[in-house]
Amino acid sequence: MLRANYALSTCNEFKLKDETIQKKIKITHIITTIGLGGAEAMLYRLLQNMDRNVYELEVICLTEMGTYGKLIEQQLHIKVSICDMRSNSIRAVLDCYRLCRGSDIIQTWMYHANLLGYILSILLKKKLIWGIHHSNLNKQENKRRTIFIAKLCARLSKRVDAIISCGPKVKEIHEAIGYKGKQHHVIVNGINTDEYMPSKKRYYYMEQFGIKNQPILLHVGRWDPLKDYENLIASLKWLRQLRQDFYLFLVGYEIDTFNKELMLMIEEAQLEQVTFLLGSREDVPQLMAAADLFVLSSAGEGLPNVLVEALASGTCCVTTNVGDCVYLVGDYGEVVSAKDAKALAMAINKALNYSSQQYAERASHGRDHALANYQIKQVVAQYHALYPAILDEKPS
Predict the structure, then answer these.
(1) Pairing outcome for strands 184-186 and 216-220
(2) Distance separating the N- and C-terminal Cα atoms of the chain
(3) Where is the Glycosyltransferase subfamily 4-like N-terminal domain (predicted)?
């Protein structure tokens, strides 16, 4: 009996040690919104490619359950908790506190979540990683509260274990306003490059929409002031003075005929006959690959996923010089100043006039650039390297 008890004790001790060795690192992600945005897409792709044998993952959203929230729960089977700061902020903070107690790392996405994550990390003595996916802090395009929180976070940043900016320009802009984390890394947004492949231009549009064999301009983005649809539509009004042979396809959340403000812009610019409003779509990779040009007209960005997707699709890009867009597009397309509709129109016209050889060379180099630097597995590997390093740090 004694021998049996001893054997059982030894077995339990072994199991306990084994469980200690195999204990997963728990990461709780806190994100301000979880709808259709670039940071939300990056969070989804990160979670999708994490090693679930090593990491236990949860997500907290500070608003409502959006598209990516549903995908995270239904496709990835990761718990998403809603702690709505808008309805009852005190209750939401208490709920977040409870949900984060068992975490090893709190990883936050966007300014509001960064601030809350800071408070929780101090109270719970947890490791904290901030995520920055924004570059424009102008008063005209941002809410006062957003600017205030971004600047407050700069004052708090020196106690944050790591800060992740989605591009070098984003990092530079935030360090200029006082962000001084213990470690400030650039980890770019990654995509599944297998989903974005070159194809014959315009064929998909001809098949799906029955349009003529004319150049296709594509814009993908949600309805948001920073996307600057006013600049986009004004630029195409200018372009119509130079040429008539193009179609404009607009894709994204709330980009449909129910959007009266957008419809009015299009009507006033007399672009109704050449504009297609497609709303949210599941065939974005096909639309990307078959377009002649991808146009980004934003007043502010971090490192936009849509430009990476367009480059990977072998589609040349015209973009405003915001965030890390010039770092992305570089010599593979055209870059102009933000809020300059005439310059944007001239750049679009220039790109439409590329020779076949010019287009093919730029498209090929752009795709090579995307494949070399933005594959999601390469990006996730950088996070996998960061997490243990953060946990091994000794308290300062």
Answers:
(1) unpaired
(2) 51
(3) 37-195
* CATH of 193-373 given 3.40.50.1440, 3.40.30.10, 3.40.50.2000, 3.40.50.1110: 3.40.50.2000
pLDDT digits (tens, 9 = 90+) for 175-191: 999 999 789 999 999 99
State the Cα–Cα distance between residues 293 and 314, nearest whole angstrom: 10
Sign of CA dihedral 111, 117, 122, 125: negative
Q: How far apart are CA 150 and CA 133, in angstroms?
A: 12
Domain boundaries, the chain: 24-190+376-392, 193-373
* Closest alpha carbon to 185 in 199, 175, 200: 175
Tell me: the pLDDT tens digits for 32-91? Answer: 999 888 899 999 999 999 999 999 999 999 999 999 999 999 999 999 999 999 988 999
Q: Which two tokens stand for residue 308?
A: 């990476």
Residue type, 287: L
